[in-house]
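Crash report, auto-generated. Payload:
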Amino acid sequence: MSTTLLARPAVSVAGLRKTFGTRTVLDGIDLTVTEGTVFALLGPNGAGKTTMVRILATLLAADGGSVRVAGHDLVREADAVRAAIGLTGQFAAVDKLLTVRENLRLMADLNRLGRAGGRRRVDHLIQRFDLAESAAKPVSLLSGGQQRRVDLAMTLVGSPRLIFLDEPTTGLDPRSRVEMWRIVRELVADGVTVFLTTQYLEEADQLADRIAVLDHGRIVAEGTPDELKRRIPGGHLVLRFAEPGALRTAASVLNVTHSDESALTLQVPSDGGVADLRAVLATLDGVHVTPDHLTVHTPDLDDVFFAFTGGPASTGTDEETR
Amino acid sequence: MTTLAHTLSDSGTMFRRQLLHLRRYPSLTIMLIGLPVIFLLLFVYVFGGAVGAGLGGGRDAYVDYLTPGILLFTVAGAVAGTAISVAMDMTEGIVDRFRSMAIARASVLTGHVLGSLVQIFIAVFVVLGVALLIGFRPTATPLEWLAVAGVLAATAFALTWLAVALGIVADSVETASNTPMFLSLLPFLGSGFVPTDTMPSGLRVFAEYQPFTPIIETLRGLLLGTGVGTSAYLALAWCAVISGLSYVWAKRTYNKRAAR
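Recovered output after restart:
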């Protein structure tokens, strides 16, 4: 998304702090989310992501700092904030005894859409989220991916301008994950602002306009996906050869960052894309060498954390994920 | 709309949600009806002959004596259902959703209370029907029946709010189903099943002063025409106190607890 002159912050946070007992979970967070963009908060379990979302969604009081959400002060105008936001947490916030339609209907009533308006909105969302077949089924009978879709549909009933998605794809199968990504992109196309948390660099890269990396309650890096990825050296190919001669021939024509003669492997920087792979293999063909084995290593959360904190992604206590 | 209109409409929505729960999950209601019916039959047919003789009548006299106590036992047992369904909400993500919406905060709880009142009245109705079938012969006038309904409603209201609070403070659904159990014991430790003057002195003092005894005495007086005396005032006062304290407790813990 390009930022226009009219862009206002959907979320602005300054000096946000939160402690649970003696444990500091958020330690002076500053961030700004521009309206109509996707902002990803990237970090391992226990980094404070869920705490952050719970504070921004008015579910948890901060210990310090100032926060404005959708143009309203989080503390003084909590109800105005609530009217503007939608929250989809890690655990499906659905009523499992009710059917899909009844769940959506409940949200329509709580948003006071009226009988006809509510029905239209519910029908629209059932179509849009491909839930027509299961609309009359109790949610408890649906798969995890379907429940997550119902959950998000419920969040959208009130047409919020700002949506918090707390680890929207954790625990989903690959197909449901891609489906969720498609939905997020559609939302943004409609002008909705999305604040999402994730443990997956790939997800942040796919969806976000800006990424902030959260570690031990501090933001250790922030920028566009490209800016961040440029600072991560992690992406590479590992090529294994049958014998040392082939390894040396290959090493003479490739841009090798690491060579291990005893394991017969070479490490070559790469973005992992098909074009890049083809180029490497073509170069090897030119010198008549074929690797025995090839693995693609794309940068992941560990690489991000290694790049920005000098250590691996530390998993804190699981307490905050509740 | 005004704040009051919002509160009413949100509470109405939450009430409809609870009515759907009653329809979707009838086994809970059946369980809440089954237990008092079993106790009624057990006490009338197993203990009734002996206890009735002790009361100076027979089994028939004991049905009359027992039924008001069983009705209260029904209410006290049924609020376990309230605690369970509140705890189910609290342990699932749905409460976070409600709390992050611009709706009347307490409407979720009000919905639970209203839904439970419906459930309790269904249970009381069935239990009363069984009592009538096995020989309960009340002498109440229509006005007295109305008063009986009123006393039961006041009691159910008070105990439901108490159960809502217990459901919120419970850390699991299992805990929530156990904590209200002491309420089911109270009719035994009062005048529900036997007259308190047959009890040993320490227990008798407790039985005479605990809140359920005046409620049972009021029901018994209204249903059987034995006179209500001051127990009606005492019963309603207890209900008002329990309702008030429980409401404040429930609302406060709801706001705090959900903020974990």
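Post-recovery validation: The two ends of chain B are 32 Å apart (CA to CA).
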